[in-house]
Amino acid sequence: MTVSRFSRRVLIIIGLGVALPALLLAFIGISLTLRIGRAVEDNTIRYNSYMAQQVAEAFELELLAHLRLSIALAENASQRGEDAAGIRRALEAGSSEFGPAHVVTINELSQFALRVMENEPVVYGGRADGRWFAGIMLHDARGELTGAGGWWFDPGAFLRDHLESVVQDRLPSNPRMYGGFESTRLLSIELLDSTGTRIAAVREPYNRSEGRTSRLEAPFEGYQVRVGVTSSAPAVWTQRFVMLEVAFIGLMGLVILLATIFGLRYTVRQLELAQLKAGFVSNVTHELKTPIALIRLAVETLEMGRFRSPEEGQKFLQTIAREADRLSQLVDNILDFARLESGRATFRLEVIDPGEVVRETLETFRPRLDAEGFKVEVEIPEQLPMIRADGRALSHALLNLLDNAVKYSRQRREIRISAGARDGEVRISVADRGVGIAPGDQEKVFDKFVRLETGLVHDTKGAGLGLSLVNQIVRAHGGRVELVSTPGEGSTFTLVLPVAEEDLTASPGPAAPDAHQPPRARTGS
Ligand code: ADP
Predict the structure, then answer these.
(1) Ligand 1 pocket, 467 CB below 6 A?
(2) Cα separation of 224 and 222, whole Å?
(3) Judging by DSSP bridges, how do beta strands 145-153 and 102-105 pair with one another?
(4) Residue with CA at minimum distance from ligand 1 atom 8
(5) Would the CB of 450 count as within 6 Å of ligand 1?
(6) Is 163 close to ligand 1, i.e. is its CB under 6 Å away?
(7) What is the pLDDT of residues 184-212, one digit of tens each?
(8) Cα 286 to Cα 280: distance, rounded to the nearest angstrom
(9) pLDDT tens for each residue of 340-363
(10) Rounded to 5 degrees, what are φ and ψ at 423?
(11) What would the 3-class secondary structure string for 415-427 be?
(12) DSSP code string of 365-413
């Protein structure tokens, strides 16, 4: 029995109504967060480029500051008309950092280039040994150009020695200066030579590839400065937060989707169960009423002596016995089912001969088979390995299989009961030539309260408990139920039970029975 298509559709629409907006929101949340992350990244990269330029310019300013004081002294000396030695002395008095000063004569000036830094014309030029000249023009008292005074210095050493002071004194430290995001305190600044090798650094970068470089100009030609963020920078925290946020939103979306799917499945299952239970109650009521009515009728007939011959009276007695048996099996089923469901069922496991249980059960059931005109084929070997089982419960399971075989057979009234052993397991099969079970239903039939719409179900008696009980009993014994069935041709139910440990060392028993259906069996879950 299933939930109606309409209810299923309504449930699916409700589920989609919850899941789709949740997924849409998750998608919007993820894309917005990613956009924020990307904007921060772009901003950071732009800021890094800008700061790299700032550092490059700051080095030029630093060099100029070193030149300025000495140059003022040198310019005075030049205006006083002092010779090159006098000018050199004045230069060296102004700055001791660069060592011996150098004066370029007016004739030599053409070998040098000129750059204006901060409105100051700076004369510069390079030498093969890697040293660079940096100096400022000198004039005499009449304002005539006399040459330039300055130093041959090692730009790499200058950059290395002045990196700390440049970063501390010459960079803007206001975090709101550019985009307002990073502060110079959280930046990594590296100096690279012409081969890209690092020659000095302030703080380590978090991710070298995100750093931005700026080339320094002459007299620092060939050198580069690379600026990136450190691991404690807000941009890095933002990146981590964005990743966390995306993972969180994605997870929430997934959880909502799974919860909706499982919620839907659970609700459908509960509705199905509620329907099955309702069907069960009406089935059981019918099951109880019919035999009681038949018994009452037979008893009344006998009491009033309304039968023509003793044989006819005997038939009424048989009816009473048969219907009483049916009632007692139904009550047994209901009680066992209730015990198993509540976990109160206990099995008395003993080492028993399965062949004997099958034979005895068949003996009990034989009158019904004969009365219903069944051709019975039995194939139970004399010697079967012992099993550890509760004989009464096993017999109850077999009775249910036999009862079903009778109930679900039509014209071909043939039943085959067989047993055998294989691979440490005993297999007991009940095969019929009845209506069979469609492949899609073969798993379902082991569920409680399930009765298939086979067409026969309205004529046959049952509460939908039999196979569920068989399955539970066999599982409690560490075994399983296998089902091979073809609609219209018949079904074979096989109880598979483990051989008792006591018997495992003994020689293998006879081969297991072959089902008269294809070998791929469905197992009760
Ligand atoms: P019940 O027989 O009381 O309906 P069961 O749990 O024993 O309940 O069986 C569940 C359903 O499985 C039956 O309603 C029937 O549709 C199907 N079934 C069980 N045994 C057979 C069989 N031997 N042949 C065909 N269908 C069967």
Answers:
(1) yes
(2) 7
(3) antiparallel
(4) 464
(5) yes
(6) no
(7) 778 899 999 999 999 999 999 987 777 89
(8) 10
(9) 877 777 888 899 999 999 999 999
(10) 50, 45
(11) EEEEEEEECCEEE
(12) HHHHHHHTT-EEEEE--S----EEE-HHHHHHHHHHHHHHHHHT--S--
